[in-house]
Amino acid sequence: MTQDAEFESRLISPEPLAGDLAAPHLRPRSLDEFIGQRKARENLGIFIQAARQRADALDHVLLAGPPGLGKTTLAQILAYELGVDLKTTSGPV
User: Fold this and answer.
1) Which domain holds residue 57?
2) Which CATH number fits the domain that encloses residue 44?
3) Is the pTM of this model over 0.85?
4) How far apart are CA 62 and CA 69, in angstroms?
């Protein structure tokens, strides 16, 4: 068997399966779906509402704290609520 034929016959494929597309999102997509961090949710809700009323971009937001508090999820929610793209990077560990 040639290398190309072996590659084609493998069970692993980078293509998504039909069932993958219907899987629910694990992270909340809106502030209403986000559980926890009550004060942060309230403040971010005010920031989002103010940015919408001004029809302007949201000023800089810094989310800091130890792992597992929901910083990345809140950043994704901010982007989703404001209808903008989010670019995520990570620094050296």
Assistant:
1) 27-82
2) 3.40.50.300
3) no
4) 14
